[in-house]
Amino acid sequence: MTTILVTGGTGTLGRLVTERLRADGHEVRVLSRHAQPYAVDLIRGGDGLDAAVAGVDAIVHCASRQRGGDEQAAAHLISAARRAGVPHLVYISIVGVDVVPLGYYKTKYAVEKLIEESGLGWTILRTTQFHDFLAQMFEAMGKLPVLPLTAGVSYQPIEVAEVANRLAELAVGEPAGRVEAMGGPEVRTLPDLARAWLRATGRRRPMVSVPVPGKVLRALRAGGHLAPANAVGKGTFEEHLVARHGGVASAR
Fold it and tell me: What is the pTM (predicted TM-score) of this model?
């Protein structure tokens, strides 16, 4: 039986990866700051990390924090994996980390480099943004009297469960390096996605197009975060909204 460690195994993605692996009959260890018996703060490293990685056949590294620390966490995990002789480290990244100069993207790209140079067997999967990301973004915007939408930006959201399934497949396979990216089924403009969210939530908000200058928005408007040639996702944003809010998906 394969033993796999999932970091961030209680998060949105990691929880689904864990469920899929267990459903397939694998032994899964869940590492997060509060999940016993492998409660470890990867940013600090230290006690518990060596025990968590000991004897595992693969690590799926899903743990990530927008507010920083991912490089330190990855360095601690890689060191522990080397000491334990872990044969395979799988990492989830984002399409565009090498071209969109967002701070978080730069950090994800730096982690990719650490893994590539680690001496471990590795696999890196990049995906486009999850449906959850856009839904949460609109929910935050929905507290305002208008929806301020960045002008000229499109997204290609993908269902997180599909990504989890792919990570589970990769984890039980051989190290494959950088595999083909996963993109959602459609590239859609931000206003189009916002209208879908408004319909699903029964809200009425005027939408305002906001021109935003700068290198980050220039890269996003150029589609650096998109993967139209890898539109392998099946679940649509409307289907995600139905699961999230109930109701019936409506046509655009």
Answer: 0.93
How far, in whole angstroms, is CA 68 from its chain's centroid?
A: 15
SS3 208: strand
**Residue-wise pLDDT tens digits, 152-197:** 999 999 999 999 999 999 999 999 999 999 999 999 999 999 999 9
Distance CA 53, CA 135 (A): 34
* Domain CATH number, residue 120: 3.40.50.720
Residue 142 lies in a domain: yes
Name the strand (E) or helix (H) holding 116: helix 103-116
167: which 2 tokens?
A: 């990570």
Q: What is the pLDDT of residues 37-46, one digit of tens each?
A: 999 999 988 7
C-alpha 238/C-alpha 250 separation (Å) is: 7
4 three-state secondary structure: strand
Question: Residue 130 belongs to what domain range?
Answer: 3-245
Q: What is the tally of structural domains in the chain?
A: 1
In a domain, 38, yes or no: yes
